[in-house]
Amino acid sequence: MSSTSPTAGTDSEPAVSVRDVTKSYGGRRAVDGVSLDVRRGEFFGLLGPNGAGKSTLVEIMEGLRQADSGEVAVFGESPWPRNTGLLPRMGVQTQSSAFFVRLTVHEHLRTVAALFGADRAAVDSTLEAVGLGDRHDVRVDSLSGGQRQRLAIASALVHGPELIFLDEPTAALDPAGRRDLWEVLRGLKARGRTIVYTTHHLDEAEALCDRVGILVSGRLVVTDEPQRLIGTFGSGSRLLVPLGRIDEERAAALPGVDSVSVQGGHLVLETRATGRVLAALDPLTGLDGVQTRTPSLEDVYLDITTRQTDAPLASNNQEQQA
Ligand SMILES: Nc1ncnc2c1ncn2[C@@H]1O[C@H](COP(=O)(O)OP(=O)(O)OP(=O)(O)O)[C@@H](O)[C@H]1O
């Protein structure tokens, strides 16, 4: 990766500002009145179910799609119509990144780097960083899905952009590859880069993001720091009881149980009175194998997205109030 420094001088201005943006495809509204600021140096995660509008919103920020209405500014400038002045400052990995498939990995990245005037050292270090250091001479059309994804990420990073957009960058990576990429992303953040990324991995968003925004049916229903979201919406704890010990109806009737669901091999009892529920469970099922879990971002996300709410939720959501 090259070592372009983030531009100084206008640090108080957000890296990306989105105001009341809408976008429809035919009669279907994919993005519905979204307002949002991504601060400089921030690691921002856009979360939401399939079809919620994440990619559409990110592509509007990138200048790859035109919004129907609303305003977008990247470093204070409109990314649409195509703003070539912004291109060297942005790195973009999409879900359908294009490759020069007949070139080798190294030739491909050299070609991308040349478009931005990045040098050969940047090509080598970026391939090393994304775990393709030993794949220089492999043709792109011979790469596995996960290796292509790494190359797409390398193509977004090779010119050392200040603002990096990554659309589900870890989707095709194996567990070790995901963890390696986390370190690459943490390193970029430590060097002051701004990162906007989408993911369905909630553990990852919780571990990496300064703030997350949750989109549901095109609307940004909440924006906040992961730990604050958990604090605001994740009250109580969850008791995981192995399936078969007690039926759902009986568990729901126990004193102190707020709700019951089945997840994996467990009956999950939500409660704000853990001791009381454990005391009630003990004579019925015994406590062997019963686990207690405090809420995670995933719990909060599932709770928020399954409410199918139309109204913004009350949290530290300045954007919605702006
Ligand atoms: N080019 C397009 N033409 C028509 N409809 C589209 C187009 N792109 C997206 N859509 C629709 O817009 C909605 C939002 O899609 P989008 O890809 O932005 O969601 P997403 O949150 O990124 O989903 P995923 O998590 O599955 O990637 C969906 O209903 C989708 O079918």
From TrEMBL:
Residues 16-242 form the ABC transporter domain. It is a peripheral membrane protein. It is found in: Cell membrane. GO terms for molecular function: ATP binding; ATP hydrolysis activity. One of its GO terms (cellular component) is plasma membrane. InterPro entries: AAA+_ATPase, ABC_transporter-like_ATP-bd, ABC_transporter-like_CS, ABC_transporter_ATP-binding, P-loop_NTPase. One of its GO terms (biological process) is response to antibiotic. Its main location: membrane. Residues 1-21 are annotated as: Disordered. Keywords: Antibiotic resistance, ATP-binding, Nucleotide-binding, Transport. Residues 1-10 have a biased composition (Polar residues). The keyword Transport applies. The keyword ATP-binding applies. Belongs to the ABC transporter superfamily. This is ABC transporter ATP-binding protein. It comes from Streptomyces tagetis. The lineage of its organism: Bacteria, Bacillati, Actinomycetota, Actinomycetes, Kitasatosporales.
